[in-house]
């Protein structure tokens, strides 16, 4: 499912126009992104939890040259699905 299909589905299920559904979807994505950028956790009951995870620095290998290199520590977004979502997907 791509964004256009998601917008159409949300519009149909919520009784909104496609423009309103797209605005709502964009606002939700922006709100989640902003919260994660601020280091906050975003929990949506029945769906899951978005949070920032710390990735430690590590030693890697350049696949072209085989040379070892240091990969810097970083932060990465993560998602943990709720039990209800897991159960729905596995039916």
From TrEMBL:
User: Does the keyword DNA-binding belong to this entry?
Assistant: yes
For this UniProt record, the keywords arranged alphabetically read as follows:
DNA condensation, DNA-binding
**Which GO terms of type biological process are on file?**
chromosome condensation
Entry superkingdom: Bacteria
Q: Name one Pfam family in it.
A: Bac_DNA_binding
**Would the keyword DNA-binding be found if you checked this record's keyword annotation?**
yes
* GO MF, any single term: DNA binding
Similarity annotation: Belongs to the bacterial histone-like protein family.
Against PANTHER family, the record matches this protein to:
DNA-BINDING PROTEIN HU, DNA-BINDING PROTEIN HU-BETA
Q: What protein name applies here?
A: Histone family protein DNA-binding protein
Organism whose genome encodes this protein = Salinispora tropica (strain ATCC BAA-916 / DSM 44818 / JCM 13857 / NBRC 105044 / CNB-440)
Q: What is the lineage of its organism?
A: Bacteria, Bacillati, Actinomycetota, Actinomycetes, Micromonosporales
């Amino acid at each position: 499912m791509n964004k256009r299909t998601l917008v159409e589905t949300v519009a149909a299920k919520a009784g909104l126009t496609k423009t309103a559904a797209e605005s709502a979807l964009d606002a939700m994505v922006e709100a989640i992104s902003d919260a994660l950028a601020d280091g906050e956790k975003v929990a949506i009951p029945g769906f899951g939890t978005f949070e920032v995870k710390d990735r430690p620095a590590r030693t890697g290998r350049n696949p072209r040259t085989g040379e070892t290199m240091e990969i810097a520590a970083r932060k990465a977004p993560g998602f943990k699905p709720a039990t209800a979502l897991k159960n729905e997907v596995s039916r």
